[in-house]
Each structure stands twice: as structure tokens, then as C-alpha cells.
Amino acid sequence: MRTRSLSAVIALSALTTSSIASRTARAAEDASLESTQAAASPSEDRPASSVDARRRPFAALLGVEASVVGLSFGPRAEFLWRFGAPGSVSRLRTTLGILPGPEFVFVPMGIGYRAVFREHAIVRPFGGLGYEAHFFLTDGPAYAQWASIYFEGGCSLGLSDRLSVGAAASLDWTFAGERGPGLQGRLFGGYHF
């Protein structure tokens, strides 16, 4: 009888010891997994995940633009707002530029639509259209083109989920004011927030 009791105690002790060892091993694995995930989590030094990037509906772009008409060259700022659900290609675009040239200072102001495809890939093509008003500051009286429609296309390269660089070209046609075509090329850098 004592032998059976002793055998039962030894068996129970062995079972408890193996259970504790098993729990300790699982706890060590969990701690290792948590430290790996913590090391992989985004920080200020690393780009955030695509899930975090989808929560960033705004982008501010600053670039240099050259206009063929009037040979104007200068800075152009853009502000983009993604409307629709996260992952939507649709952007509302507002823009303002100041491009000095030999004949006049060209000041385009506009609002439009831009579709950005493959937003979380490295290569991000885009296209858009919209309305612009063009102001021309000269030594004489200033004049304006009040109704210009533009079409644009380009591509940006994602350096991270927050930073991008790219190039674009736009073609416009003016219907009111000094009628005629316009052609611009632009290089830009962007910050997404």
C-alpha cells in the first residue's frame, strides 16, 4: 500500500514538474515573441506599417515647376486630402505657385481631383484634372486667365510611408481671359500626415 502511495506521489510530482517546465517554456516563447514584435513595431526612426499609413489622409507637396509659356520657373505648393474610405484613390488637390519669368510672374491657383494608384507601393502613378485661375504680374497692368482646365499625370516614388518624391506634367487650356494652351513640368517632394 505504501509503495502504491509512494508511486502515486512520485507520479504526481513528475507530472507537476513537467507541467511547470512546459508553462515556463511557453512563457519564454511568449516573451521572445513579444520582444520580437516590439522590435518590429514602428518608431520615429522606422517607417510605419501600411495600416498606419492608411490613417494619414493628408499630403503636403512642395516642388519646382517650369512653365513653357512665358518660360516661368519657381516653387509650387500642393495640398492633397484623401476623401472616401482608407485605401481610396481619390484626392482633393489645392495648389498655389509663384513662377517668375522674363516677361511676367506667373501665379497659378487651382483646385482639382487627383487619383493616386498603388498608394502603399514604391512606384505610385497618378492622374488628375481640375480648374485653375492664372494671374500674370507684369511691369504694366496685371491680367488674369479666369477659367483654365488642366489635366495632369505623373508618378511618385515612396521613400517611406510618410515621404515621397516625384515628377508630373500638366497640360491646360484657358477658356476665359487670354485663351490658349499651357504646358508645365514639375519635380516635387511630399510629406504625408
Give a quick precis of the structure.
Helices cover 22% and strands 52% of the residues. The chain is of the alpha+beta class and 193 residues long.
Describe this structure in words.
- The chain has helices at residues 2-40, 50-53; strands spanning 58-67, 72-82, 90-97, 99-100, 105-116, 123-137, 143-158, 163-176, 180-192.
- It has 193 residues and is of the alpha+beta class.
- An eight-stranded antiparallel barrel has the order 1-2-3-5-6-7-8-9.
- The longest helix is centred in the first third of the chain and has 39 residues, at 2-40.
- 24% of the residues are buried.
- Mean pLDDT is 82; it is low at 38-49.
Set down the secondary structure blueprint.
Blueprint lengths: L1 H39 L9 H4 L4 E10 L4 E11 L7 E8 L1 E2 L4 E12 L6 E15 L5 E16 L4 E14 L3 E13 L1
Antiparallel strand pairs: 1-2, 1-9, 2-3, 3-5, 4-5, 5-6, 6-7, 7-8, 8-9
Observed structural traits:
193 residues; alpha+beta; Porin; 2 domains; 8-stranded antiparallel beta barrel; 2 helices; elongated
* Major beta sheet summary: 8 strands, antiparallel, barrel
- Name the structural class: alpha+beta
Radius of gyration: 30 Å
Order of helices and strands: HHEEEEEEEEE
Please, how many helices? 2
Overall number of structural domains: 2
Return the average pLDDT rounded to an integer: 82
What is the highest CATH level, the class of the largest domain?
Answer: Mainly Beta
Which architecture of the largest domain per CATH? Beta Barrel
Q: How are strands sequenced across the largest beta sheet?
A: 1-2-3-5-6-7-8-9
Give the termini distance in whole angstroms.
76 Å
> Which percent range fits the helix content?
10-25%
Shape: elongated
